[in-house]
Structure prediction request, 285 residues.
Amino acid sequence: MLTVRAPATSANLGSGFDVFGVALGAPADIVRVSRAPETTITVTGTGSEYIPEDPKKNTVGAVAEALDAPAHIEIDKGVRPSSGLGSSAASAAGAAVALNELYDRGLSRKELVPIAAEGEAIVSGTAHADNVAPSLLGGFVIVTDDGITQVDASLPVVVCLPEITVSTCDARGVVPEQARLGDVVDTVGHAATLSVGMTRNDPELVGRGMADEIVTPERSVLIDGYDAVREAALESGATGVTVSGAGPAILAVCRTESDRGAVAGAMLDAFDAVGIESRAYQTAI
Ligand code: HSE
Prediction:
């Protein structure tokens, strides 16, 4: 048996819709694989009751098929489904790494990205590599049609996950088809600032670069309490706050590791004030 830990991820980071993604230190899925004549899947852990074990309907079944690597695959979910933290991507990435090794396929992490993305498409409908790529490669990842660029960024963050779900379909449905040129210009500026910030591990630049006037304002209304939680995190020392992926998780970048406790506490209290239970991960990119 071979065991792999596959990290949660946060996509978009505000200004980088469908382009930016980061790997998070926590939470994570654990994927265990052993050779078998045909693929079978068992799922345990958080939200496992919502995840099909049929290989044709599960993200890791498609990965096993693409690698021609039948196996018994055990997924211990640490990343809650429908969290905005790349739950299906973590399982797909973990299975891709584990099966590649189990069957000595010799593919690089980068070569596994399209395979894991196809697996994720089973669940999400489209193959967005902005979650599988950082889960496989770590750090900060820029995904475009031309390829993938990875940077070994390291920054303290807090991820606050409320006990609500936002359907990815709804979250994509509110994304505007068009944007004003002025907003596009601002967003390009923010995305460029954020990218430079990642290369310097600079929380001020990354926080400032997370601003986005196109997608995030539309999506944030799907998360009860978002404005209050964002404000509370900023007042407690976060440099930038945005919706993680399609939500409902909210990501806050912190100046130092020791700031994370106050930011996490403020975010939990703000959700509590609107009657929503939540949990906070004090972690890092
Ligand atoms: N970029 C995608 C979105 C990620 O925000 O819809 C989904 O996890």
